[in-house]
Amino acid sequence: MTQTTAESHYIGIDVGTGSVRASLVTKSGKTVASSTYETTTWRNRHDHRLFEQSTTDIWDGVTKVIKACLKESGVPPAAVKGLGFDATCSLAVADFEGRPIVVTNHIQNIFELLITKRRTLNNALNIMDAWVA
């Protein structure tokens, strides 16, 4: 599909726990193209409540889904007038040069993003305790 009009377009990007997704839409909201990139998540073998991801993998995914949407649609990058970005609750730490910093010591130099779902787990345990009582 190739777009030949000079219509304004927008890209929405969603970074979830298992993938990066993007949709390219027109000003009126019509979806022109979409793409998904599956990300890798590692579970901490010592604490099942901790999940780790690589910020490099995530940002590579963001780049890939945007490029895929533009290629699929034929929309030139100059026609994209804005980006919307959404991501799950995570912690990503970088130094002053923007390089990722490892925040755990489970597997050095591999994991750069720490996701903890402790609040959800605690809420579930509280609900179960109240239900059993």
Give the helix/strand layout.
Elements: E1 9-15, E2 19-26, E3 31-38, E4 42-43, E5 50-53, H1 55-73, E6 80-87, E7 91-92, E8 113-116, H2 118-132
Which features does this protein show?
4-stranded antiparallel sheet, 26% helix, alpha+beta, 4-stranded mixed sheet, 133 residues
Which runs of at least 5 residues are low in confidence (pLDDT < 50)? 108-115
User: How large is the count of helical segments?
Assistant: 2
Please state the overall shape, judged from the principal axes of the Cα atoms. elongated
* Helix fraction by DSSP (H/I, runs of at least 4): 25-40%
**Mean pLDDT, as a whole number?**
79
Strand order of the largest sheet: 3-2-1-6
Alpha-carbon distance between the termini?
A: 59 Å
Rg, alpha carbons: 19 Å
Order of helices and strands: EEEEEHEEEH
Tally of strands: 8
Structural class: alpha+beta
Largest sheet: 4 strands, mixed
* Percent in strands: 25-35%
Summarize the structure.
With 133 residues, this protein is of the alpha+beta class. 26% of the residues lie in helices and 32% in strands. Strands 3-2-1-6 form a four-stranded mixed sheet, covered by helices on one side. A four-stranded antiparallel sheet has the order 4-5-8-7.
Description:
With 133 residues, the chain is α+β, with helices and mostly antiparallel strands. The protein has two helices and eight strands, in the order βββββαβββα. The strands form two sheets. The protein has a four-stranded mixed β-sheet with strand order 3-2-1-6, covered by helices on one side. β1 (9-15) and β2 form a beta hairpin. The longest helix is centred in the middle third of the chain and has 19 residues, at 55-73. It is elongated and about 55 Å long. The protein starts with 8 loop residues before the first strand and ends with a helix. Mean pLDDT is 79; it is low at 108-115.
